Amino acid sequence: MAQKKQKYDRQLRIWGEHGQEALENAKVCLLNCGPTGSEALKNLVLGGIGSFTIVDGKKVEPSDLGNNFLLDHDSLGSSRAKTATSLLQELNDTVDAQFVEESPEALLNSNPGFFGDFTLVIATQLTESALLKLDKICREHSVTLLVARSYGLAGLVRISTEEHTVIESKPDSAVEDLRFHCPWPALTEYAADFDIDTKDPLTHKHIPYGIILLKVTEEWKASHDGKLPANSKERAEFKEAIKARTNPLEEEENYKEALAAAFKVWSPPSISSELRTVLDDRAAETLDAKSPVFWILVAALNAFVKGEGAGELPLEGSIPDMTSFTESYVGLQRVYQEKALSDAAAVEGHVRRLLKKLGREPASISPPTVKHFCKNARNLRVLRYRPLAEEYGAVGNKKGELQSLLGSEDNSHAALYLLLRGADHFAATYNRFPGVFDSELEEDVSRLKAVAGGLLNEGGSGAALPDDYVTEVCRFGAGHQADHEAVCTTVGNVPLQRDGILIGCAKPLTIVDAPLFGETPRESKRNALNFMLGRKRNVACVSHENERDSLEMSDASLRSHLSEVFPGRRRD
Amino acid sequence: MGAMDTGNMEGRWRDLDYLLLRQGNIVGPGFEPAPEIRDFLQDDFKVLVIGAGGLGCELLKDLALSGFGHIDVIDMDTIDVSNLNRQFLFRMHDVGKPKATVAAERVMKRVKGVTVIPHHCRIEEKPDEFYKDFHIIVLGLDSLEARSYINSVVCSFLEYDADGTLDMSTIKPMVDGGTEGFKGHARVILPGVTPCFHCTLWLFPPQTTFPLCTLAETPRSPAHCIEYAHLIQWGQERTSETFDADNPEHMKWMYEQALKRAEQFNISGVTYSLTQGVVKNIIPAIASTNAIIAASCSLEALKIATMCSSGMDNYMMYVGTQGVYTHTVSYEKDMSCIVCSLGVPVHADADSTLDQFMKQLIADDRFSGKLSKPSVSHLGENLYMAAPPILEEMTRENLSKSLVELLGEKGGTVNVNDKKLAGVLRVQVAFSDAASEPNAMDTAGAG
Ligand SMILES: [Zn+2]
């Protein structure tokens, strides 16, 4: 046990016990253990998932030894699934390891129910027709599907799941909820014990800045009809009132901190629009006997905000460090923590009431669960992804949007998206991927252009597709396996980063946008990632439209310098 | 070499060959597809990986599977249990063994044909010449100090001629990766051309430190109590011992003292894990972030070596905390960088001797306290070496020679080394009586 803690120490520091527990309960199914799949599984096994099952019907070939670390020379000719399973097992013997020697496509036809048993299915290097079937099965069984496709120096990642909810989203910077603008009675009472005009210089420079701000705010309100500083002139006056209290003979850190934090008085954290959307979600309004715990908690939270909270969320309860005497700080900390506890108790009351109303056991959601939920209330996340069938069908309907993206200066994502999908359609028509044969390379360029263009516009020529990318995708000559280990490593790992899927805690998975699909009412707009390694910006993935401009840059100067760094080196 | 030796059986490198044997439109400068490129990569190209930890393990695997045939790896550490959640080349029974050695063995065993030479030592223990021997250096490090050291070594290879033009053959490309939790970066450094570490020092956030009086008098957080035990109590109570963070007894003592202090001040939250985190300044790490960053670095190394695809310019940040976000920035070189630039302009009399010139440098306010017994070189030639004695003796006669004799009519850039300097100090010498003034800005190599 102690050793396990030690072994996972560096990751526990990120996702904590809850995250680790979720990971250890995860049952993962990998389809195809080429380099992309092997990489994905390798890092999940290292992290300590509960079990994995590899589905792969191929034998180890020489080309596997040029890109797959989980297949070795001695295994040439034997089963890929079996070899990778045993080499993965070496990495972590606490993980339960299984394999099935069958192609995923065949298994999809012969035993579709097989996929319903997992927490997560990672589908690598599958083409569209197989993915459509798989997505349907996974949704029927509430299994999350990750689609990862490496293609030469390019790749595409997609997540598909009906709904993914995250409580512990672990934001980078915590929002400080200090309530200077509306202190509760116990806080006002605690502040009353301090004299911010004390003549003792040592005491004066050790009053926590929170107390200073509470006191000055109280005075301000008393002289301004109970209102807070409302404009920049008043805010400057407020700060002057703080400065006027400082002792000119001393370096007073606490007053400096008070000035720096004064803005918190007039701009306390509000309920973000994202959280507002969660609170107002239909799932919380239409609870029934089978509603997930998450939505009952959201409904209780909403009831608290509208009731006892008077518009505020339950207090989170932690406070930042403040220069002060230990006991003043610890005392202040306690006042905040007590309030957080009483808020959580109020939410718990709502939970019990709701459970009872739904005919469920009122104690079925434990007090620690409610407390944990309240502590993370500000950062709840709900992610919904549209079915693949909808995405694949949508392209035709969104051709105008895609056309205009292709016409824009930064068209790499739209182009690669269409070309990678085009390659699948190409394969369906020609029974092979574009660029596999040197002799047909040139013809394949125009064929692929036509096929990908056809996705955009029935009978279209693909004229809008940039030639550089069409040529590049054909150059990759990528079939089901033509992969570069490093690219596969990226493609295989990008989806793992996205939390919650396995470690229910952590970071919500909002991979890119395919802005092509725009927003639909029932899904997160960011639902696919395609990128190309080898382009000037290396991994280019879009995450917010407004950041796209800044991604543009020139690599011309670097190119010219590199040619000088290695002049004629290639003929060495 | 036969196919059995290198593992080059038919079709093994098919996917790499698609890139190396076919022309493309998005490729590096001067790329001409040819089978010799793979031969060069496998037979002649030498890459050094610094660090065999989370990034290093991934880098070795990626580089070996990208077709690099000769890899060296250097790391001073031994394997710890807490490495096993991501450093996949190591097993439980390897704990305590040198990382570099075990990593090299495992990669060679799994990837037939690759040669990985381990170096279990500190990077400072190797002479500068060691680093000169590689075509490219890939860094998988976790400290700014180590990066700065290697940066100064690699930048000291740079030579500028009298016109201030960089000799491109003296550039040693570096690819650097770094990760912390869900975040990371990959960058390409062409010293003298793109910014070096020193040019962009601000990218590294300052470490948090606590005022000593807070630790001693008014602790408020668990970290305050831990740092008190670490920075103050140990020195007071265990005067004769050096604290070793890897010694479990030492760490336990630290935790117990911190806990006592926290109880005394009514502070909650001191745990063993937090104590370790604060004292060892532990950076959280997971396998997949390392894998992503290392993959990017390896790909850049492949691109620099083969030009088979256009390269990164020049810094990619990766954020996986909410969704997946990357952003690549083309940072600019600091033209007055003391490590990689043409040099700090210094006016000197053309007739003054090297000895007089060195005294002038020591007296120069800009380098105050940084020079005591400097050594000076110019265009790769030692003009004066303060140590070792044998070199000192060989170069001593230059002390009485004039600068114009040593540097030529136009002056030029000299590299100054001194024990007190963190790296090399580059000085651009212009003669006071010369017609033109030194101008570091318009002739530097990055133009
Ligand atoms: Zn520099």
Automatic annotation (TrEMBL), chain A:
The keyword Transcription does not apply. Pfam families: ThiF (PF00899). The keyword Transmembrane does not apply. One of its GO terms (molecular function) is NEDD8 activating enzyme activity. GO terms for cellular component: cytoplasm. GO terms for biological process: protein neddylation. Keywords: Ubl conjugation pathway. Residues 8-165 form the THIF-type NAD/FAD binding fold domain. Pathway: Protein modification; protein neddylation. Belongs to the ubiquitin-activating E1 family. ULA1 subfamily. This is NEDD8-activating enzyme E1 regulatory subunit. It comes from Klebsormidium nitens. The lineage of its organism: Eukaryota, Viridiplantae, Streptophyta, Klebsormidiophyceae, Klebsormidiales.
TrEMBL record, chain B:
SMART domains: E2_bind (SM01181). Keywords: ATP-binding, Ligase, Nucleotide-binding, Ubl conjugation pathway. CDD domains: Uba3_RUB (cd01488). PANTHER family: NEDD8-ACTIVATING ENZYME E1 CATALYTIC SUBUNIT, UBIQUITIN-ACTIVATING ENZYME E1. Its EC number is 6.2.1.64. Belongs to the ubiquitin-activating E1 family. UBA3 subfamily. GO terms for biological process: protein neddylation. It comes from Klebsormidium nitens (Green alga). The active site is at residue 213. Residues 346-432 form the E2 binding domain. The keyword Phosphoprotein does not apply. It holds the Pfam family ThiF. It comes from the Eukaryota. Transmembrane segments: none annotated. This is NEDD8-activating enzyme E1 catalytic subunit. Signal peptide: none annotated. InterPro entries: E2-binding (IPR014929), ThiF/MoeB/HesA (IPR045886), ThiF_NAD_FAD-bd (IPR000594), Ub_act_enz_dom_a_sf (IPR023318), Uba3_N (IPR030468), Ubiquitin-activating_enz (IPR035985), UBQ-activ_enz_E1_Cys_AS (IPR033127). Catalytic subunit of the dimeric E1 enzyme, which activates NEDD8.
